[in-house]
## 1
Amino acid sequence: MTINRLKALSDSYGADLLRWPADERRDAEALLRVSADAQAILASAAETDALFDAMSRAEHAALWTEAEEAAAVARLRAGVSGHIARDGVARGQRRRWPGLVSLNHGFAVVQANLGWLGLATSGGIAVAGGFLIGAISAPSGISEGVLSLLQTSPLHVLPF
Amino acid sequence: MTGPLTYRDATDEALAGWSGKGDRRAFDEIVTRHGPFALRVAARVIPDRLIAEDITQEAMLRAWSQIARFDPARAQFRTWLYRIIVNLCIDHRRRIQPGQLPEDYDAPDPSDSAEDKLATTERNKVLLAALHQLPARQRAAMTLVYDEGLSGAEAGRTLGLSAKAIERLLARARAFLRDTIQRQT
């Protein structure tokens, strides 16, 4: 390892070699054993690390305590499971495309109502068929207007 | 779920597979397992805890909606999930004003004297202001490597960058923070 590479790694990962890429750690340790320049570079990085430690402690105070984090995780679980159950966020659907979700819901509504649609259609066909049979079997004397489609007497013989 | 494993014992990849088939309890275990990480990262990248919680929830719902497409042959589940979370945090952070401080950033140590508390508060203000001025990607890289202990390579996979790119982000972040703090103290 060169001094330049060691400097680059310390500029990125600091003085704690455990953060350094594992495949470069051994070479760095070997260089640090023999090079005063390398040791000075690491000492400088350790000073910056101390600043970051203070920063990390300051930030930690602004984050959740252990109890607050547990409560936040509980809220997260409840929120996620609630949304999944309530909105039916299906796998493969993109939540940023609500139109697609609405379209899917629309198809579901049509599917759910197909039974009623079929029933209504069958009823309509039956009524129309009744009018047709009435027209075919109506007595010849009453042949004008809508009334001619009404059956005026019991049907004795069907023509088919 | 089938087999002798409980959800808690199952690997991330197994949970992801079950979740991909619609197993909500398996996904709940994923949320339980990775929620603390997700919340911490979000809270570090976004300086408002309530917004951080909302973003984390959005990230988890996005993970649920896409989990059937997760391919364990291409990535570790943890990396895949963390990428969704971190990228969503970065996207949000880019849309908000930088430099906003959380209202309760200076929670004091009750053992400190009044003067110590004031000094600590002022110093924390400077430190946190510097942290929150970092660009989102640099902040995310620092969080992943320094706070969460990921290697540079892992952080790179999470952010969709090379290990070299992570090194550059970290170096720029360290230089910026060091210079900012030294200028202000």
## 2
Amino acid sequence: MREPRDGMRRLSWTIGGLVLAVAPHTVHLRPWITLLALTVCAWRLLAEHRGWALPGRLLRSVVALAATAAIAVSYHALTGLDAGTALLALMAALKLLETRRPRDHVVLVFIGWFLCLSTLLYGQDMVAAAWVLPAVWLLSASLLNVARAGTDDQPLRPFRTTGAMLLKALPITLILFLFFPRIAGHFWGAPSREQAATGLNEEMSPGDISELSISDTVAFRVRFDGAVPPPLQRYWRGPVMTEFDGFTWSRARAQSYFMPAVEFRGNPVSYTVTLEPTRQRMLFALDMVQEWPKEMAQQGWDYQLWTRNPINAVIQYRARSYPVFRAGIDLGAALRNRNLQLPPDRNPRARELAASMRRAAPDDESYIENVLAMFREQEFYYTLTPPRLERDSVDDFLFNTQRGFCGHFASSFTMLMRAAGIPARVVGGYQGGDWNPVGGYLIVRQSHAHAWSEVWLPRRGWTRVDPTAAVAPERVERGLDAALPDDEPVPGRLLRNSDLLWQARLVWDNVNARWNDWIVRYSDESQEQILKTLGFERPDWRHLGILLGTGLALWFAVLSAWLAWEFRRRPTDAATRNYRVFTSRLARRGIERAPHEAPRDYLARVRGFRPDLERQAAAITELYLRLRYAPAPEAGDLDLLRSLVKRFRP
Amino acid sequence: MNAFRDSTDPQRESLSAAIAQLNQVVLGKDREIRLSVACLLARGHLLIEDIPGVGKTTLAHALARVLGLTYQRVQFTSDLLPADVIGVSVYDRGSGSFQFHRGPVFAQLVLADEVNRATPKAQSALLEAMEERQVTVDGVSHPLPDPFFVVATQNPSYQVGTFPLPESQLDRFLMRIELGYPAATHERALMRGRDRRDLLATLPAVLDPEMILALQQRIPELHASDALLDYVQAVVRASRDGSQFLAGLSTRAAISLLRAAQAWAFLHGNAGVLPEDLQSVLPAVVGHRLRPRDAADRRGPVEMARALVEAVPIP
């Protein structure tokens, strides 16, 4: 019979491990699941404490079926990452209701491990990994705790033991991580989630980007080969939107045009982008990109880079851009028409305004100037919390609210251009970025999301015009924080005002960037690089296998050596060492001494086999016995033994 | 070359002479005789276990004669009472008080013959006397003679009508030995030779109680090196690891083992205790203190002791 306290401890350890394992999932689990699971845990602990009976088989079955049904209804599925995790978490909690024997604990620990694994399917950032580690530790300790009952005197010992075990496993993990052959492509790819993408969309309605702007998450990081371009040139091109229905701008779908040629001028900027998973197909590059990994993405007629598959993992690519360029001098009629398209019956007042302003201006350029001047001089405000707009969004914005974010300005400006007969389009993307002096790279966050316009002018081709810059030039030059009044919430504003915190944040981001570079993005190519560095000329998976085997063998050798050292035959004095030399020489002649064999018994045996050795062997044996067991060995005994053994060559 | 032999000791000389005398009476049992003498020297008691008629009683009697000790024999039977062993207080009309009449236990060498035939009550009377080296009757303690040496014989416990000694009481015996059948040549010599009983009567005493006491005092002083103590502890530790035996050897067993080994080393003229000495006495000292872990394990005491020796490398 086990002590009741023992059962309580086992239970609380297992539950603790499970809670740790489930905790990172709570952000995407439906709240009712978390709540239910916690309730069951609490009830189970209370039941153990009070000695209540656990529910019977029928009740348990009903609850399990109901929970499964609830998940099916809630997620519209039972498989897939989200529903699967939910099912796992819930069933782990329900398993507690029948957890009595050690076997049940073992099952729970295994579920816990699996939940830890699934955490990494959601994200492989450092925090997730750092969280999973203690969870695995606690779960393993719990398993050990279940296996060994009744150690009240050292309740924390399983922790120590499993800690040591995990530490010993760490090099194995490292070797497997480094050398286990990785297969290129999507075989290892984490299953994608059925979830709205974070980041920029392929279409833009008024208000979209301002939602994004309150997110402080990192979109991508950029490392420049040379000098970092000034803020005014940091326009990261994202989705180009040409379709306008009067409210929403969207990307032109399923239409192919001839891509107008680009003329690059001046000096290029080369850089490497590490892109966080977007679950979309866009790559971001500085305008105007000239070189990028062609096997990864192709450029559309609107100069945007598209990948073949959604980006579900952290990826890295190199690109080269020319800040000064001339694009699309020869536009072509089809493309021109597309960029003039407007819904005929929408935003009538804006159309009117455009017509009158265009009439008042001598040419297109001065018309553009006038429109920008209008934004600048009239009562237009730049804010993250604009009022909601009516169906004719441009009319509503220009004549009623006059308060907006970059999307509002870009949308209205582009529409005014089109209404005046100037081909124009809205470009989404990111603008700016925080320089991280610690790591020497640029952090581009979701809060840097931006929208601007491109107009087509006869001799200059596609020209970027940022109407936001007319209203709030600080936004472009110094970032969102500077452009907004003090009473508006801006992510990280508090941080930015404290040097120390800001510094810490930059360091932290740098650590994250390294994590991405070294851990998450470690791939078959990285392995190839390592193999080449190690001197394999044409590395393939066999070499990896060799390294894998060698690495593991080496580590096991180290462990074995350590064990041998731990359990070595301790005090081996000089007499014994010499005597061992003597016995091992005889052993080579086939007269082996058993470990328990007394020296004189051994001597008798030696005498039987090799009478010729008797004198020498007897002298050595008696000297050894005297050295080791006599009250006062004579001085010089040891030297004598040494020389006798040295001369003993059977 | 023998670095340990020291043959100039007169006390040991006479001890060797005594052993030679004993060998005249009990033929072909040199090892058992030496163990018996070593047991006496280590101030322990001896249990001889074997079937009737292989010379248990003869050995005990011969020991008493040769060592010059007073000798009493108690035949244990199922109706033996404690008073039959330790003595009884009788009212003396003349003095008007109770007089204690000493039982057979008041001898320097007591032979408790077939000790497992008596009831536990009678057995425990003897065993208490062995342990306390005194007898307490009516609140008065009567010290037993010194040296005091009990030789108990026992029939194998599978024989009918026996009360096997419990483990705790077996532990009181320093050694347990078996005699076994004599070799054919010795058996023939026994058939041809004089009756042992007559022989015993003519046996001269080689030692006397004072000499034995002096020898007994020398035994614990015999050198046991750290290396040897390591070995004793390794043996004890191996018996305790639970792989072979139900319970490991006690600390008393460890000390007994050392004393017995010291006595053996003394008998053989070794200046310090050798692993050989320890291994020689080990079956006799620990055999009866071990129980196999597995109930189906039919090994006897000697086999278990041998397994223990073989499990422990000499450090």
## 3
Amino acid sequence: MTTELVAARRRRVLEAMSEREVDALVLGRQDNVGYSTGMARLWTSGTRPFGAGCVLMAKTQRTHLLSSWDAGVPISVVFDDLYPITWNPKIMASSMAAIAGLSTARRLGVDACSPSFIRAAARFAPDAQIVPCDDLLAQVRTVKLVEEIELVRSACQVAWSGVEAVLDRPDDPTPIAPALVAMAAQGATIPSSRPVVRSEGDTTVVDLGVMVDLYEGGVGGRFVDGRREHPPALVDACRNGATHEDLARSSTGPWLVRGLGMGYETPIIDAQRGQDLTLVTGMVLSVTDGDHRDVVAVTTGEPDVLSTPPYPTSRPAGSDA
Amino acid sequence: MRRERLARLRHHMAAQDVAATVLLHDPHVAYASGHVGPAVDSTHAVYQRPVAVIGHEGPVHLFTDHPSPDLATEIHPSVFPELDESVAGLVEAIGMVAGTSGTSRLAVDEVTGAMLRSGLLDGFDLVDAGRVLGPARLLKTEDELACIDRAQRINEVAMEEVRTACLPGVRRSELAGLFSSRVRQLGVDDVLIDPIFQPMPRNLSDGPRTSTGHVAFPTGVGDPLFNEEDLVWVDTGIGVEGYASDYGRTWVVGRDPSSAEQGLFRRWSAVMEASLATMGPGVTLAEVGRAAIGADRGSVPWLPHFYLAHGLGVESAEMPMVGTDLGEEFDEQFVLEPGMVLVLEPVVWEDGIGGYRAEEVLAITDTGWRPLGGWPSHLPFKT
């Protein structure tokens, strides 16, 4: 991930804050913090309790970041703008109070919050109205920058290395184990989703997701003789302007089209959800139909499939060619 | 286990006049309902999160499409608290136990943007769900202890194997892959933290710069390639039925420890022994901390941004915590009771040589304490 990408993302967030007249933006979700600051915090699985992971200030354009050290902190954040991890709410409140401009903020954006944060904010920013900004971040993140698309593409190739390791060891009693080793050999040690490996006769069903350099990659499918079955029509249907109805019509099994970037993102479209949503150019989507999953970037023409197999695609399994 | 946990939770709801508890945080949902989701990235967990709603009577209402087997809960289709289009489902869920008019006290652990926009919690007196879950979670049942013990033993076995692979020219990611695959082979799906194998500086001035002046750990930065000079702090955790293990050791890379490094381990052992000698029901956290400090010639033998010890359960760091920035008064007032779990993690440091850090997990019993996990060797250090 380049410093230019980090700067570009941060600029997008600050511009969106300005449009919505948000004076200060407090982010708790790791992916939002990573998007806005470039900080990659030590990964832990599952949800995290809400806490101020970073604070972006509109007026000063400064980023204040939760970290007790400068390791892993992007160069755009100076040491004095770090605030330390703490177990003590009073110390956290003082850290917030010390952020220039926060005490006079009128509109305090959050991507989520908790009752105790609401109470604390009433003291460190007494004039501020809390404004939900999860949608601000979601909107900013929906259309990807070129470098983001390439990061997803390479993360998908890491996922493929896991798939190939599974297929190379058909008799392994723990079929996921070789996939974990193979992906780790590429430096990738963080699963994004629950891995799936199962056999159905001659067919092996695999679905793997992985986080690489904060971006997600993934692929899934039904494999015969080491080759994946044809992509379903739903993959090709993911084009600029496609509606819920277009996607539903193209699907053949249980399906899900959802944003993919720094993990699971919006839009989320399936049989029940996202009825009013339309795909636009620049979205990156994880497209699942039955056991098949591809990752695509939406363009005005054919989707750019980011999860292309590492072998020639002219002869997938089940092909008569 | 599930019945006992729920009874404890409701006891603390009643004591704090909480009419209903709404849980969105995975470990909280697991505690209240028994449902344990997979160990996936936080973004996946957030959008696919189960939600639990608990009143004073009746079953726990669990909203998920993929419930764990054999739950004694009433299962409903997923509500998606992240999405504006799902708010109606959430209103209905909360209404099941709290009524629809908000005059009562509601405990909730997270308020999403969609929840804020909808105003569905307006009028309720909101308190952090941690206030009812925290005290409930402090005292573990025998079943809970058994889960932690099993997770810890599997973690120990896997890590002792990984240790023999920690050789010059190997990368952190390779060890992490080996660990995750080995854990799977031992029957555990959930690795709760990206495995840490961090080569440590020998001098604090070697950096990184920290807010405490002590050493930075765990940073999770980069993918270091180990060499023979390295002193490596390791830290891993896995989950069994939602309960976490916590394994910490200090390793050297393909050699024996130097006599100076061995000296660090002796100092660490003295701190551990003194802490354990003090441990038991009726003891305050402050007494444990003082014993550790006394054993290390008055230095504070733990990382100042963390603690000497922390609890362990459905989360890998929970109460009780010894020696945090909550301050001495907190530690003086907090008394250990049977059923509490502590992970002792002293750190000894000597500039120029480096540091030794390792963790041991224990449960407070009626008469003292007992280990959770088998507490294996500290190889290659000599006891």
